[in-house]
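Could you show me just one protein sequence together with its fold in token form as a worked example?
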Amino acid sequence: MNAFIIHPANQEEASLLESLLKRMKFSFEKISEEKTNVSTEEIISINKGIDEANENKLTNSSEVHKKARALCSK
């Protein structure tokens, strides 16, 4: 038996696919969330970013682009 994994782009597509599969009497399994493995280092980095965001220490993208252009032009 084969399995197919379909990634609808939005809820409307997901509902349409579910209705279609039901009408065609296909057996299917609906999984609402994907699991991602995240290392300890990544979790620490994510938490650091959240803390910086909460403390308003983030830099907007235009400032980042300016700094990147300055670094690349050297």
